[in-house]
User: What shape does this take?
Amino acid sequence: MTCGNVLTVRSFVAVASLVLATALLTPLQALQVTENSLANRNREIVVAMYLKLFNQKDIATADEYIGEKYVQHNPLVPDGKEALKNYVRYLKTQTPDSSVEIKRVIA
Assistant: This one.
């Protein structure tokens, strides 16, 4: 084998290895992009819901976004969609000018 043939074979092996590595990583990268897109979309939905509920005091938002088995993380408010709606009604009548500011969303 001549020197030119050895370089050609090495070049071929290097290119083939790169193509193989790219083929193996591409589905993983596509999955990560899909997961990131889904997480971003979920984040947008939750922020929109939260702002409509607590800044606009739009009680109908609960029917649009919340299921019947809603788990409340505020210890002063019971679980469930109706309890959340009652809490928003309370805020609307007792503190109509109150609002929330979202600092960080983790998804």
